[in-house]
Amino acid sequence: MAPTPPRTLPASWYTSTPLHQLERRAVFFKSWYLLGPIIKFTPGSPVFYEFAGINLTVTATSSTTPNRQPKVEVVEDATGSPLPHHTTRTGLLFTTISPTAAPDFHTFFPGLEETLSAVDFTARPYRRSIAYEGHFNWKTMVDGYQECLHCQYTHPAFSVLYPPTFYAVKNHRNWSQHFADPEKPDDGLFLYLLPNCTLNVYGGGMSLFRVCPTEDPGTTRMEFDYFNVDEGEKFEEYYRFVRQVALEDYALCETAQYNLERGIYAEGVLNPVKENGVAYYQQRVLEMVLEQHQQDRQQARAREAKVAAAAISAIKHEPASHGNSIPNRTFVEASA
């Protein structure tokens, strides 16, 4: 009997405000985020980020680590509290947005540091960042990144360099590695990092983007950072190429979100080979949301039990009065 193919998340997961708010606690508060190569941060120039409503500031200090990387501080703006962060051996900075909700870096991303060790992320100078609003759910963009079935038609220029015929995705715990050609595993480094970050290294350039949810489930903020060994016109040529790919994805995501919000698309089947990256990350989101929902229910039941116990205690200690003492005692005994 053939295995049952994976199915997509229902359209409501891209449009529902209550589900969107639940994802914030279930997924985003419990994750790690790629902020960028450590060379992006210089003393005296704080860099600001926002994830799921949490604003944070990254500040580089004048001191350095034993391997000569600048030390940084990551602080939540609202409380001034330091946030757990991690700098990889090859110079990538990651952070959480909660002091306690997320596990440690290596537990959340097992094996990732070993993969990252193949690239010196301080070798490509920081060139440019841009940000703009996207009219789609954050998962709509991740869906597109996690497969390349659309590449031949949507990204003709990219498909010349990396033919989708050979494209493959290997999933790990909370991250995925993309291979333009599995026979050439060292030809670039393309990573998806749950929930909303990507890292793309090929040639002399490197880009990363974050697709950040807003209060509206149908609106995101897209943030891009670009690094390159080249400058001047050579960098601009690279920049035009990667921006063309990004804008092609943007148009595709807006159309997909339009169809989701109007009921044109509700739920479907995923190709278990060509869309295994989509199936994997959606399953992780589902697992984390269901786990949070179960925790919420348990906490709600505990609160209800506490309120009921307090009410019973108050009745037990209520002074007896003529005409209602026996009914009260009967009620308490029946409740106990």
TrEMBL record:
Pfam family, one: Ring_hydroxyl_A
GO molecular function: 2 iron, 2 sulfur cluster binding; choline monooxygenase activity; iron ion binding
Uppermost EC category: oxidoreductase
Alphabetized CDD domains for the sequence: RHO_alpha_C
Organism superkingdom: Eukaryota
GO annotation (BP), single: glycine betaine biosynthetic process from choline
All copies of domain Aromatic-ring-hydroxylating dioxygenase alpha subunit C-terminal, residue ranges: 127-168, 187-289
EC code: 1.14.15.7
Catalysed reactions, as listed in the record: choline + 2 reduced [2Fe-2S]-[ferredoxin] + O2 + 2 H(+) = betaine aldehyde hydrate + 2 oxidized [2Fe-2S]-[ferredoxin] + H2O
Biological or metabolic pathway of the protein: Amine and polyamine biosynthesis; betaine biosynthesis via choline pathway; betaine aldehyde from choline (monooxygenase route): step 1/1
Family in the record: Belongs to the choline monooxygenase family.
Record function comment: Catalyzes the first step of the osmoprotectant glycine betaine synthesis.
Record PANTHER family: CHOLINE MONOOXYGENASE, CHLOROPLASTIC (PTHR43756)
Protein name as annotated: Choline monooxygenase, chloroplastic
Organism: Friedmanniomyces simplex
